[in-house]
User: Which sequence fits this backbone?
């Protein structure tokens, strides 16, 4: 296959199994991503046609096109998958890896990070980003999610992901196409466990750089001649190595000892966690499943975004392999292997769960990917309590409308790399056990259909305000796909 050839998308057939039907997954004629993929990559495809096709997806169910349902709208969280996910993030918290420990907790079983749901269908779409021979690079921009219950081992989820909006903005290098999507997860009892919104960016070039990038892309070299970022791989001094080691040694886990809401003070600092230096092992584990160079991404994938490797001439699945290949990462305009933005956002759960203990509950998270994490980089996660209040939540619980009061704290999270850049500014809301209010009552009430329509939802202007001010705009509640149609 030459670099100028395009896969024959007309031969791609979507998978629609009885299990998907039983779980309530919409039929293939409701999926837009795969259908549009068959037309992308044709001669003359431009940034304008990318925007045009992306907008055709608004309001429709988005299908990523992968053959592995664990990565799609029907997911089962086995003990193995949950344990491997957390261990691959450098966390050995027994609540997340030891079934016997979990049985002794209030949950009666092992849990996994609620942020793991980001990794299955992470609130964005790859629908129309880098199939064509146009000069673009694709990057995860951010997520804003709410959680209504813990994620228990053995849970099975159905999910929905819809394109909410597609807009164009002017960036430092040229045109930007921003995709906003809404995602929801229901468990096997048909209870909403989590929902949220994501933003994905296609970065284009302008002027002479656009011409260079377009010619390079046609040769299979992508943005290698017009880089988005450029920085040398970090070389650590003895003092820098010592800092990483000492931060890891000083990590503190609250565990089974309750952290009561009454004992928390505004301004309280969380004990940092450290991740890095970043190696290829972390990149290949970036999606949290047993991915590897010889695994899912080596065999031909239904709906994969196939591109010819400019060195070997062999097609590869571009979206993931470019993260870990020292040669192919430059096609995305980055100087070396880089992490998955979703992986970095998932890791805020390690910092938070260490601090809140087994009885705390992560209610909301919101993160923005500001800089890549390159091969050799180290990320220091820090946090500070900035607000403390009682949060009254009214909604449906087990078919009844209830109002429950929670002891809540808001936490600002910084993710600083070794050169002093905050690569992932984030915010979280934590519910803590209270001597006055009792344990955190789960599940958290879900807004009724009538109330839901009155809720202000995160939209494009919120995201732009975040970019302009540097502060995370926290939506009261996310819009999750499908509720208006139920």
Assistant:
């Amino acid at each position: 296959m030459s670099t100028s050839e395009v896969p024959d998308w007309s031969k791609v057939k979507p998978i629609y199994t009885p299990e998907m039907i039983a779980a309530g997954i919409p039929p293939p004629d409701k999926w837009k991503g795969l259908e549009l993929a068959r037309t992308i990559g044709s001669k003359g495809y431009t940034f304008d046609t990318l925007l045009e096709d992306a907008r055709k997806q608004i309001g429709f169910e988005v299908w990523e096109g992968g053959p592995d349902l664990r990565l799609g709208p029907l997911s089962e969280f086995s003990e193995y998958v949950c344990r491997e996910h957390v261990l691959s993030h450098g966390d050995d918290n027994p609540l997340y890896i030891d079934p016997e420990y979990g049985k002794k907790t209030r949950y009666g079983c092992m849990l996994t990070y609620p942020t793991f749901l980001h990794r299955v269908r992470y609130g964005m779409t790859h629908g129309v980003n880098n199939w064509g021979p146009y000069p673009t690079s694709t990057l995860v921009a951010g997520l804003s999610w709410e959680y209504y219950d813990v994620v228990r081992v053995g849970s099975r989820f159905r999910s929905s992901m819809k394109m909410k909006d597609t807009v164009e903005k002017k960036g430092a290098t040229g045109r930007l196409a921003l995709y906003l999507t809404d995602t929801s997860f229901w468990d096997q009892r048909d209870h909403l466990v989590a929902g949220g919104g994501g933003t994905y960016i296609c970065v284009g070039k302008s002027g002479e750089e656009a011409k260079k990038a377009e010619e390079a892309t046609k040769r299979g070299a992508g943005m290698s001649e017009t880089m988005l970022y450029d920085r040398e791989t970090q070389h650590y001094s003895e003092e820098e190595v010592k800092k990483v080691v000492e931060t890891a040694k000083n990590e503190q886990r609250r565990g089974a000892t309750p952290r009561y809401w009454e004992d928390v003070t505004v301004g309280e600092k969380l004990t940092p966690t450290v991740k890095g230096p970043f190696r290829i092992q972390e990149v290949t584990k970036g999606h949290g499943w047993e991915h590897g160079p010889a695994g899912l991404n080596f065999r031909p994938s239904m709906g994969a975004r196939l591109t010819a490797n400019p060195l070997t001439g062999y097609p590869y699945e571009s979206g993931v392999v470019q993260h870990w290949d020292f040669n192919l990462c430059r096609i995305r305009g980055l100087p070396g292997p880089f992490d998955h933005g979703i992986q970095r956002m998932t890791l805020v759960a390690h910092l938070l769960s260490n601090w809140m203990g087994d009885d705390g509950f992560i209610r909301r998270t919101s993160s923005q990917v500001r800089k890549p994490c390159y091969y050799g980089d180290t990320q220091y996660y820090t946090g500070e309590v900035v607000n403390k209040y009682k949060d009254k939540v009214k909604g449906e619980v087990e078919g009844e409308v209830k109002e429950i009061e929670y002891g809540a704290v808001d936490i600002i999270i910084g993710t600083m790399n070794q050169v002093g850049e905050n690569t992932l500014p984030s915010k979280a809301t934590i519910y803590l056990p209270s001597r006055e209010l009792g344990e955190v009552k789960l599940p958290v009430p879900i807004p009724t259909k009538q109330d839901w329509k009155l809720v202000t939802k995160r939209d494009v202007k919120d995201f732009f305000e975040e970019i302009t001010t540097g502060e995370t705009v926290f939506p009261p509640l996310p819009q999750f796909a499908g509720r208006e149609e139920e």
About this structure: The chain has one domain: 9-485. The mean pLDDT is 76. The longest helix spans residues 207-218. The chain is about 20% helix and 25% strand.
